[in-house]
Amino acid sequence: MSATIKKETIQFLRDLRKNNNRDWFEKNKDKYIEASQNWLDFVGSIIEGISKFDKGVAGMEPKKCVFRIYRDIRFSKDKSPYKTNFAAKFMPHTKAAAAGYYIHIGPGEMLLAGGNHMLEPKELKALREEISENAKGFLKLINNKSFKSTFRIEGEKLANVPKGFDKEDPMAEYLKHKELYIVHDIAEKDIYSDKFADTCVKVFKQMVPYNNFVNKPVL
Fold first, then answer.
1. Which of 45, 63, 117, 210 has the most CB atoms at less than 10 Å from its CB?
2. What is the pLDDT of residue 96?
3. What span, in angstroms and rounded, lies between the C-alpha atoms of 97 and 214?
4. Could you tell me if residue 99 is inside a domain?
5. Is the pTM of this model over 0.85?
6. Range of the domain at 176
7. What is the CATH classification number for the domain harbouring 11?
């Protein structure tokens, strides 16, 4: 049976957003522990589901997939010590540039994502070349009716087509991207359903053709 996200888990994150300081956190540590365990249980259900179609995820430990709640504030102007969301990523490949599956749950921002993020220059160039040379395949993928109704393409972009590529390339707008990830937004009312884990797994499965395309030039 799939784990479900409790309303108390999101309420904890909502309260943390209003009280993002160590004193409040320590006084409410028991609530954090409960929320964190609920999240780990849910992530375990996601791993189990993805493993059925992507063996690279099989056997992953939930604790190694989730992000720490503690923020790295050393170089940030925002000195809030805690993140106000729970997130996890499932990477079927060991290479950092590879596309995987990501889930982010927090008040005001709930989403699933896939694709590439933070590519090295050599990997980014290879991905751009693949998109330019296999434009037909890429457009067929992203213009698919099911894909368009489920995902939007995001990622930081340059103002101009990068050096080494034709400014008149039909794929120019995609070549400007420094990262190409896909996002599926989630409504809060849906996350408390006992079917939510299954819904996430279904969306992640829809990401596979896109992940395979963007992984080909970087793996």
1. 210
2. 84
3. 10
4. yes
5. yes
6. 7-215
7. 3.30.930
| Residue whose structure tokens are 């994150």 | 13
Whether 87 contacts 109, CB under 8 Å: no
Output the pLDDT for position 4.
95
At residue 22, what is the residue type? R
Q: Looking at the 3D structure of the chain, how many domains does it have?
A: 1
